């Protein structure tokens, strides 16, 4: 399915009070909505993801996977500020007749969710059968489930939290310091800050994996090497790979948005906010995740009414939510089966 663009022609107001006179939202859909309109699976992607969920979440989403276009109507929108078609810092600013770059309004996870709501309204989707996301995608999903508890029927949030931690903010600030150390970032050009972005990605990788991951995948074969280590090559390769497909300005703003995540903002408290969720919820943690440690997911599961908690053993760290699709498929199938049975029982009790 090719990327589609929805243009929201009314003024979009950010949480900060800043405004955009129009907004473009890039998205993809897979499959068809059924007659009952209860087969919608909406995916919120993570930091440098995109709307092609069949590409970056293979094994969970695909023609022959658990979430397939034969059974589900799958929607994934490129998030606000990202590099893949939705309005972002590189977009055209009608006031200056140039790109926004560093003048783009700072936005939050709540703003990202408001953009997704606009698209859902445009598509005529009043009920989302399953909302799923990991990491920054999970932050969006939990915020959406709080703000529209009646629209979201089932919720799966993986390797995420209710408020971004000081540890996570510190990692993101370190990455922004790397970007700002590249003087070309201040040139406000499409390639500005690319060397800084490469360094930022190298920092990020350390939080996505962990000591054991590198020990297993980047260990040298012998004892004689004194330079040009596998780990060094890996960091450079991954940095170059991101630079080819992303831009430093989007990365800066998206990391700021992640820092902004706090479901208690403008609400009575974090706990009270989580209690607003009515969706049948599965919270998934990853044992080796050092960026979003399992304690954060256990907190979500404890505070969201009726939520189930699952912890996956994986040596891949935070990236396990993208890699461990086999166990995720098995556990999500159980969750869907159990919640379908519970839903039928509730319906039966209500009609008796």
UniProtKB/TrEMBL annotation:
Gene3D superfamilies: alpha/beta hydrolase (3.40.50.1820). The keyword Hydrolase does not apply. The active site is at residues 135, 289, 318. Transmembrane segments: none annotated. Residues 40-322 form the AB hydrolase-1 domain. Keywords: Acyltransferase, Amino-acid biosynthesis, Cytoplasm, Methionine biosynthesis, Transferase. Its main location: cytoplasm. It catalyses: L-homoserine + acetyl-CoA = O-acetyl-L-homoserine + CoA. InterPro entries: AB_hydrolase_1, AB_hydrolase_fold, HAT_MetX-like. Pathway: Amino-acid biosynthesis; L-methionine biosynthesis via de novo pathway; O-acetyl-L-homoserine from L-homoserine: step 1/1. It is an enzyme of class 2 (transferase). Its EC number is 2.3.1.31. It is found in: Cytoplasm. Substrate binds at residues 201, 319. It comes from the Bacteria. GO terms for molecular function: homoserine O-acetyltransferase activity. Transfers an acetyl group from acetyl-CoA to L-homoserine, forming acetyl-L-homoserine. Homodimer. This is Homoserine O-acetyltransferase. It comes from Paradesertivirga mongoliensis. The gene is metX.
